[in-house]
Amino acid sequence: MDRETRVFAESHFRGLRGRLPSKVCPTPDRVDFIEKPDSFSYTDFFKSYLLPNVPCVFSSAFTEDWGSRKHWVTPSGKPDFDYLLQNYGDVVVPVANCGVQEYNSNPKEHMPLKDYISYWKEFIQRDYSSPRGCLYLKDWHLCRSPFHADIFRSFSWSVNICGRKKWFFFPPGQEEALRDCHGGLPYDVTAPEFLDSHLHPVLEVTQEAGEMVFVPSGWHHQVHNLEDTISINHNWVNGCNLANMWHFLQQELCAVQQEVSEWRDTMPDWHHHCQVIMKSCSGINFEEFYQFLKVIAERRLLLVKKIGPGELQCSEDFGLGLQHTIFDISRIAEVLASVVVNPDFQRVDTSRFLPQPEDLLQQLQEALATTEPL
């Protein structure tokens, strides 16, 4: 990130005025296709897709040198079962049964990859049917993914090593029209009751072999594999969607509190128990979110301390780059300022936190005060 991009980003967030980044941009009428790596920079991606929080697709030229595309796939473009068996056959993997709905997910079991590949081969030979149902290996999606938004409102990318997928995208807020009378989201947005209504996915994308789909923060989506497919996926949070993550966690706690509200007056440490339940359901609670912020904040502060104010225009020799580091510190400070005044966070026992949240916030604000002004 150069200084001009940082100025652009800071101006973008000042313009939000407390609104979530994921809900301020109009829905695009199409998904952009990025064809040539040489003519597309990280700055282009940052400005055009991360900040406005909209999806895009990268061509197979971006992944043509990946080892997985060379070794996991046969010359005809199919999964190379022999290679996978030789290198990963004894690995125990989680497998979900797509034909069985368990709440808004699928029941899972564990098996060696070699057993799963035996099933997969038989599934193909039986014209894509099996008495065991349609099973898929975690992270190698072999059929449909239930309707969802990515964990903690993270960004994600998904690359097809081989095969083709069809994506259905709903921008943040669009999913609200799909909720049932109990507030639940549909398991499958392509079910007849939705196809027959006026509610249709705003964006549809067919992803070819080698292509990468960028999934923005908070966009609900559903994926159908159109043929035998192996994909690699990754989730991440950065300064652009950190506020989305914090807002999501507040919503998760509120949902827990509503579910157990009838026991509030009779349950000692009710607020603490809500945090425990939240962690069980969501994988993280407010204490762990602070620890997450702390780890990232301290790494950014350490980088800033290694240089002097007059060196902020130097080259990008510090990993993320100095301008990106300052941008991250600014975003962490804004979110942490919201955390420390949150009434539910104030009920968390922070006596053993080092540093204390208020002290960490002061460190971030002091670091920003010593950097070059925009």
Radius of gyration over alpha carbons? Answer: 23 Å
Name the shape in a single word: globular
Major sheet: 5 strands, mixed
Contiguous runs where pLDDT drops below 50 for at least 5 residues: 312-318
Strand content: 15-25%
Kindly identify the CATH topology of the largest domain: Jelly Rolls
CATH architecture of the largest domain: Sandwich
Number of discrete domains = 2
- The CATH class of the largest domain, by name, is Mainly Beta
Q: State the share of residues found in helices, binned by percent.
A: 25-40%
Q: What would the average pLDDT be, to the nearest integer?
A: 88
> Secondary-structure element order, as H and E?
HEHEHHEEHEEEEHEEEEHHHHHH
**CATH homologous superfamily heading of the largest domain:** Cupin
Tell me what you see in this structure.
The protein has 374 residues and is of the alpha+beta class. It folds into two domains: 25-236, Cupin (Jelly Rolls, Sandwich), CATH 2.60.120.650; 242-370, no CATH class. 37% of the residues lie in helices and 16% in strands. It is built from twelve helices and twelve strands. It has helices spanning 3-14, 42-50, 67-71, 81-88, 113-125, 192-195, 242-259, 270-282, 286-305, 322-340, 343-346, 357-370; strands at 32-34, 56-58, 92-97, 108-112, 135-137, 145-148, 155-162, 165-170, 203-207, 212-215, 220-225, 230-236. The strands form three sheets. It has a five-stranded mixed sheet with strand order 1-2-10-7-12, with no helix packed on it. Helix 7 crosses helix 8 and helix 10 (322-340) packs antiparallel against helix 12. The protein is globular and about 65 Å long. The two termini are 14 Å apart.
